[in-house]
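Table S2 (continued). Query chain:
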Amino acid sequence: MNKIYLVLARIILWLEKKWPGFFPAVDATSDIYAGSMTRYFNWLHRLIYPRFFKKISIESENLGKIRETAITATIIYVTKDIGQLEYNFFNYLFLKEGLPLASFVNGLSLWQWLPFKTLKNIVLERARRFADYGPLPHPISSGYAGALIENARSVFFQLKSTPIFDDLYWYSVEKDPLAALLAALERETRPIYVVPLHFIWDKRPEGTGSLVNLLPRCLRKNILFWRNYKNRAVVKVSEPIRLSEFAFEFKDVPLAGRARRLRGGLLDLLHQEKKATTGPALKPRSWIIEELLEDESLQKVFYDVSAELKKPVDDVKALARKYIVQTAADINYNYVEIACKMMKWAIKNIYDGVVINQDGITRLKKARHAPIILVPNHRSHMDYLILSAILYENNIAIPHVAAGVNLAFWPIGHIFKKCGAFFLRRTFSGNRLYREVFKTYLKILLKEGYCQEFFIEGSRSRTGKLLRPRRGMPTMLIEALREGSVGEVVFVPVAIAYDQIIEEYKKEVEGGQKRSERLLDLLNLRKYLRRKYGRIYVNFGEPVLYKDEGKDIASVVRGIEGLLMTKINRETTVTPSALAATTILSNRRGITRDEMLHNAGQVMDYLKWKGASFSEGLKSDPPAAITDAVEQFIRAGYVELHDEFVPIFYEIKEDSRIVLDYYKNNIIHFFVSASSVASIVLAHIRQFGVYPPFEALKDDYLFCKKLFAFEFAFSTRMDVDEHIKKILHYFEGQGGGTASLEVYKEILAPYFEAYLIAAIAIQNLNQVEERALLKRMMRLGRHLHLLGRILNVTAISSPTLKNAILGMGGLGVLVQNKDQKGRKIYSWSGNVELAGKVKLKLEGLC
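Corresponding output:
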């Protein structure tokens, strides 16, 4: 073969002498291996590739860092074994983004895509070298690649990852590109950074593929390219890694060992990058069901339940199978992709867009060393739909979502299961078998590494504020973790806020029964297209890593819940609708525009002091954003503009106050302490004409904290004395006048009035079931409102009064028991003095 090459080389050299004009002078810097990236391609390449390459999804957050790093360092690109298509794309990407082009790639050549002039140069230079020195030497063992690195030229290394390559018989350190890289590192005159690259042909998990995967590699890649380049192909460009730091831990190992360890570390990094996008391999639902039924711990439960119920074990196992069939998700990415397209359409036609904190997305992608559990707040049915769509669009594996069994009706239940939902009953106390089956399912999801999602509140908030956490899911997750499924998990809090939600909870807040979801509701979606509902704001908080240390599960769950609730509240975006509702709601029927904007400015200053995040509209032009939000309220019929006479003012319609209160409650957690302090100060001024002494203020604040223990999460980041003094100092800095304090007092006024209703309603109460007590409170609230003793109609709120019952129990004026059916029964404690003090205190704060 070498003789044939020699003859061809001599023919080419003879042609050069015969027609020197056809063979111009050879560029001394030309790449004789024809593997370096090029700035110019031939007409065939320009015809085929660019129009398709520009549609491929690129994760571009690290491109700027690479450009900056390349100014003072040498960039080495590494990826798993690739082909012509991928390498051509990276050439296109680096040109487009201004990144250093690779001067060499191992195992690939671009000769068929080079301009004819460049190709002539390479052919002529190869002929000369072959005639003078024989065949081209290996680019790695000859030192060619190492010399490029030492001369600060970027190179592109493919990492072999096959079992054959790992065999010592096949391995040669002289031809290992990473060995050449490490050798160049020893003579480093300029920092060397490694940039892992990953071209993912299909972002769906493994196990969702087709027979295409059985085809030869070249044919398979061409089919995948034409099928996936628009929607499923993803290119991930990782953050630059300083090679000296990455390889430091094995610096004393011989070169061959160092190269192997470096390759293992880089391949693991690339695997984790891919896993962050595709997720773990998707096991069939049938496999998960059989794996669950064969679980050793669950097998013991079968025998225990069989003995308790005196039923055959096979019957118990059949019942367990029925439970898991009703529960388990059955993800199908064809359904997921259709659902995402429908969500795009819905967002375009119902909302003005979705605002996502990209820093949170980046943190989520990096939290890949343990199973991820997303923990969002819950305000609308849109929550779980929009969250899965966001993850899929941002190239993150969609979660398995815990959903209420009320959504399992046909055909929605079938579709939701195909999109990742697994269903659970609202309560399963007393049904040990169901609980153990469900917990074992969670254990399998954790063991397989699947991302999960559950709503910490358990159900949608009807009041707009974060509800008290439900402890069932966190408890079972920690138990599953402790039973050996995995060693650690990552909880990611997610705060979802809306300018306006499509649901309306007014009837339920006023005491009406919740209506079950129906197919008819789905068919009636047309009503939501009549107007726009503003924007949706989704913020991913700082991940919380939990490692099991064997502590008491109840205390662990309380700690995790408290931390996640705090982070969700902190990440909540202040929307124009929330700020507008906070400033226009008062015990008066109307407010002028100037007064509204003045109050809004005061509230915004406080929120800035608290470190809250604002929507873009509130950042750029607060008056315009707030006015626009009020205009939306007017169009929705919640507010009426009176502009016939001066001053122009907004009338807050009495029957719409509960709706507006919902949006105020979206950000009420920022004001709980300040509003409590303002209410205490104003109550003391009304009674005594002066500010209260600090100790009296502190006592009343602690009373509020205990009163609202089931309503709000008070700040615990600092000592109570320090916290109160900090708030007082802020009020003093703002002038400290009673007019400004009234703005803060009004925010919490409906809650003080609701708890006053509860304090009056429970007097001399004897053995009343919870539902009957709640109805009694609602009737009393309407009675007191008509008499003018309760000024805020929003105080007559079923969810708030339900929490007030718990608050009264916490204060010791109400006693809770259970009847034979397990229903909660309440009675007055009989402590007349304590009940009188509570009532008197609340009357003063109102």
